[in-house]
Every structure is written in C-alpha cells, then in structure tokens.
Amino acid sequence: MPRSVNAVASRAxxxxxxxxxxxxxxxxxxxxxxxxxxxxxxxxYAYRDRRDKKANFRSLWIQRINAGARLNxxxxxxxxxKLHKKDIRLSRKVLADLAMNNPEAFKEIxxxxx
Length: 114
Hints:
Layout: H1 7-20, H2 32-71, H3 76-85, H4 92-101, H5 103-113
Helix pairs in contact: 1-2, 2-4, 4-5
C-alpha cells in the first residue's frame, strides 16, 4: 500500500507562506526554505516592534510634556513630581495631547500644581 502524505495540505501550507512573502527580492519570494525563514524572521521583528512601539510613544509623550512644561517655567520631572504629590492622575498620553493641542488647558494644569 502506498504511503499517504496528504500532498494537498502540504502544498496549501507552503502556498500560504509563499503568498504572504510575495514581493520579496530574489529567492526570498519563491524558494520554500528561504521564504519560510524570511517570513519567520519578519514575524519575530513584528512581535518585538509591537512592544518597542509602546516605549517609543511613551518617549514621545515625555518629550512633548517637557517642552510644554518648560514653556511654563517648569521641568518635566518637577511637573510630574508635583502632579503625583497633588494626586492629579493624568496619563502622559493625555498630558502630551494637551501640551500640543490645547496649551491653555495645559497651562492651567501647570498653574494648579505650582
């Protein structure tokens, strides 16, 4: 009796990854083992960078808050320390948005903690 290998499923599995990697240069787009390695490495980068994105945004928010705070005569660390002391719970995301898009409201927050 011949060996059953289910070539249909095997081909479908390979085709799925080859379709996902379409457009890559040279063998990365059409040679199965190279394409699979390329796809797996891309998935690793995607996983890592989803986490890096959060750190990058936090860094951006801190820079924006610092710029807004310095326009109002205070440093970032002073502002954040006084906000925590006064128990004003605003996220860095919200503070950064206020500093950029609504400087008057941000100034009021700074004056509240001064």
